[in-house]
Each structure stands twice: as structure tokens, then as C-alpha cells.
Amino acid sequence: MTDFNGVVPAIAKALAKRGYNSLTPVQQSMLDPALAASDALVSAQTGSGKTVAFGLALAPTLLGDEERFASAAAPLALVIAPTRELALQVKRELEWLYEMTGAVIVSCVGGMDIRSERRALERGAHIVVGTPGRLCDHIRRRALDMSELKAVVLDEADEMLDLGFREDLEFILEASPDDRRTLMFSATVPAAIAKLAKSYQKNAVRIATTTEEKQHVDIEYRALAVAPSDRENAIINVLRYYEATNAIVFCSTRAAVNHLTARFHNRNFNVVALSGELTQNERSHALQAMRDGRARVCIATDVAARGIDLPGLDLVIHADLPTNPETLLHRSGRTGRAGRKGVSALIVPLSARRKAERLLDNAGISAAWALPPSADEVIARDEERLLADPIFEEALREEDQDLIARLLSAHGAEKLATAFVNLYRANQSAPEELIEITLQGGQRKPREYSDGPREPSQKGPRDDFGAGTWFSISVGRKQNAEPRWLIPMLCRNGNVTKREIGAIKMQQDETFVEIAADSAEAFMQAIGPNKALERGIRVTQLPGTPDLVGRSASPKPYAAKKNFGERRDYGDDRPKQKFGDRDDFRKGPRSEGAGDQGERDSKPWSKKPAKAKFEGKPKFEGKSNFEGKPKFSGKPGAKPKFTKKKG
Length: 647
Hints:
Blueprint lengths: L8 H10 L6 H5 L10 E4 L6 H14 L13 E4 L3 H14 L7 E4 L5 H10 L3 E4 L1 H9 L10 E4 L2 H6 L3 H10 L5 E6 L4 H10 L4 E4 L10 E8 L4 H12 L3 E5 L3 H13 L4 E4 L5 H12 L5 E4 L12 E6 L6 H8 L9 E8 L3 H11 L4 E3 L4 H13 L13 H25 L11 E4 L2 E4 H4 L17 E6 L9 H12 L6 E6 L4 E6 H11 L11 E3 L56 H4 L24 E6 L9 E4 L3
Parallel strand pairs: 1-6, 1-7, 2-4, 2-5, 3-4, 5-6, 8-13, 8-14, 9-11, 9-12, 10-11, 12-13
Antiparallel strand pairs: 15-16, 17-19, 17-20, 18-19, 21-22
Helix pairs in contact: 6-8, 10-15, 13-14
């Protein structure tokens, strides 16, 4: 058995059984004899083994000179984590670490059945792991007995403060005994953490491991410059190029998570989502799918993925740039753990290059700037993986010799190789063709702007649109549908440009969209078999021009450029009429009787008529300054005329 100096014997056996040969710096620092009964404020890089570290530090305090725990009663230790996933992960780590001590470990997290947790606490526990809100609930309901508590651990303390748990943490710490031992673990130590430590710790020992002060050596940072419209295509190519066992894609919002999840599902990626809007059961199923190999890509927000540890997570992609250096380090820290190598790729649109450079500089990270893998590079990488596949090293089994001989005689070696390649590529998503960009003087510029004349502008009349195919979109005016967000959504999901979108006719509950006939088939293929865009919006191809007779709302076709002088076509039989033909909108001097002020009669008509002048102050009687009913001239668009009261 490996000898771990200073480790409780039962814990040392568990480490050896788990395959530990040595301890990380933060784990080794927690075994210092001078720290045996002291409070500690520990800052260490994400992925440095903090859970095992505080497990080692708690053992002497909880066990004393004993090898095993006595029967479970009131809890002896409390571990607080910011999220449900991290709390459950901490529980799993402590279970194998304390396996040979007979420890009973109970979790109390939001989203789980609180009655089951209360019954588990009543049966007794040695260590309780939970989230701040749920622990406060149990304390207020007197289900969690804090009287025998010997130690409290705050894991990811900086994140708990960022999530607004300060009041809950203060309530828990004030409810625990004054002679407890308090251990605080945090990736960074901002002023808020230092203040909390000063208030609730006694002569705390400050521990900063060497890994905190330098870049994580097991993570390769790459900044990939892309054209703004190619951001999602670049992510697809990065996923295909690396083909990591597990990968995680970080987005800034839940809506972005839902959009990318739908897009990658359509591209045959085994993907799961992780965001705050999911239930605890859904989140647990998503993480389990990543662990057992049913899914290989997790798309998540920052808070939802805080502290999760996935096996074989070799790739982290920042679909949206992090807002601060701490978030960048926490995201990237999901990979490169426990001695594994990992890649952290930032997708940087050209317009956000300087923001990305500042972010990397503030985080103290040296990233390699490059272009995302092209389609040819992805295909070449696929061929390398195919040729190096271990399947070619398997020996020929005797029972398969007859079958192989029959296949060779029936089809030949070339056809068999073709079939093997087709099967190999069957479940792979095709790589995307990216807009070419080039590096000039350290800057990223689109190639079409650097060499030769620019392409003609796409604005202007669309006389060359030609024949089109009509589609029905399952949103309309009732769902606040507007061309300004419908068109970009169609371009993103349908792989079309604005010039390939014709008229848009808005109805109450649906919208008709015309797509250029040459692009209609590719449009449907890009949308995928589910025929869905974002937010559950569905697309249906129409056999011909939509029949608008009897619909509740008149269609308003969208065009790239409208003639301002003509009335819009509202789909009825009314003749088109220019504004200049309307009798009530004549330009030039107004006729006699158009108004009762001679000063206005002598001037050309303007959009803003002169204000009426009064001698003295106007007099008002009651609520209205007019008498009688308004009179209309009968002309379309005419305004009512009022007779002003006298006196």
C-alpha cells in the first residue's frame, strides 16, 4: 500500500484502492500538522482536487483517534456547495473517501424530495452535504440538528456569494456552534470572501497553492477568429475536428443553450442541455447521459455547469465569450483535470477580437490565435482516425473465415473498403464550409475585403428573385412575429441568405415565407427531419401559393425595398393609388376655407401647421371645448372638423 504521511489509516486505504499514488499540492497542504485544528482559507485552481483535500482535513477532526465512526446521530460536519450538481458530486467523492470509516453521508439539495431528506436526517448522519437554501429550510424546521457540529466547509465560496447566498451562509454559520472548525475553499479570494472569512473564522490560516499563480499547464488555450455569421458553423467544425470523448459548449443565456441544442440535434450530434430552467431530474439525466456515453456534447450556461466533473472531458468551447477572467478560468477548468490534457477553444467573432485579447490578458493566459478547422482539415483528420483505428489490429477469428471469403468473392476488396468507409461516416455530421478570413498584421479581416474590389451590395430591388417555394411558419402576429427576427432565424437554421428569401406574409397565427425555388430543397435539408427552427417553431412546405381568402388578418408582404410613393399591397382588390392622387393631400397653397387664419392661406402647406393664435386667454367650459358632433367630409382619410365655442 502507498504510504501517505499524515493521512488517517482508513482514508489512506481508500486512496490506495482508488489508485492514488501521490497527492496534489492543495491536498498535501491540508495535511500540515500546524493546520490540524485551525480554520483555513484556501484558494486553489479549479480541478486541483479540493474535495479530497477538505476530506483529508476533516478526518482527524471527526474521527479523532478512532478508526471508524460510531453510530450515526446528529451531524458532525456540514459541507455547503453552490449548486445541486456540485453538492451531489461532493457527496460521491466523500462516499468513496470515507468508505472504510463507516461514515453515513446525507445530501440536502433543492429539487429533491424534502421529506426523504428529513427522514434521512432523523435516522442520523455523520456528514451532511447540501446547498444553502435547502439547508436553511431544514434548520428552520428543526430537522437539521447543529448542536454536535465540529466542522463546516464552504466549497466554491466565491461562487456562492456571486449567486446571492450571503444571507443564507450567514444564517447557517450563526446557527452552528461557536467552537466549530471552518474551512473555506475558493478559486479566488476577492474582498467579499476576505470579509466573510474575517467575520466567521478565527485566526484562519491562508493557503494559496502554486497552481493558483500560473496558467493551468494541462489546458491548451486556442482563440479561433471567425466571421460573425460563421460562429455556429465554427463550433460544429471544432467538435468534429477533435472528436473528444466528452465536450462542453458554454453559452451566456438559456435561449442560446436551447438554440444550439436544437441545431446540433439536427446535425446528428449526441447532445444534452444543462440550464437553470431544467428540473433536478432532467439535469441528473443529462449528466448521467454524459457519464455513460449516451451523449458526447453538453451545452450549458455558466451557473448550471459550475463544479461538475465529467469523465474524459477533453474539450471546452466558449460559444459566447466569458464576461470576466474568473468565468473563463472556471469554464476552462472543467477540462485538464487529474493529469489529463484538455483544449479550451474561444470562438471569437472578428468584431470581438480586442475584447477577447483583453480577457485573456487579464486572466494571465497565453492563447494561440488561429482559424477554426476548415472542412478539408476535418475530413483529413477523419481519415487519420480511420487509418489508426484499433479495429485493424484485431486478429482474424476462425469462425469468420468462411464469411470473409464469401464477401471477397462476391464483392471484391474495393467494394468492401467502400462499404466500410460509408459505415464509418454514417453517423458523422458533415463539416461546414467557412467564410475565408486571413491574418494581416495580426488582425483578422475578411478576405473579400482585402483582395480586389468588393462584391456588389445586396441592397436594392430584387427583380432577379425568380420563382419561389412557399413555406408556413407556425408563428404569427399573435406571437409577436416580425421580419426583423424571423429573417435572421431562417438564415441561421435554413442555411440561406436574405437574397434567397422573398415575400413574407404575416397572418394571425402563422406566417407564409417565400424561398427561392433553387434553395428550397437545401433549406429543408438544413432544417432537419424535425422540421423545426428555434423555440419550437415548425416549418411546413406548401404545395403552391398560400390561399389567403377568409383568413383573419390581411397579409403584409415583406420586400427588400418598397416604393414609398405607392400604397402597400394588402392582398385585396383595391387599386394601387399614389399618395399624390389623393384629393385631401394636395400640395401647394390651401384653398379658401381650408382654415380660418389668413396667415396660413398664403403659405404652402407643411407637415406641421401653424398654431392657432388667440387674443387673451382661451376660455374652456366643462370637459370639452367643442360643441356638437364632429363633422366628416366623407372623403377617405379626412379628419373630423369641430366648431369652436364662442366666448
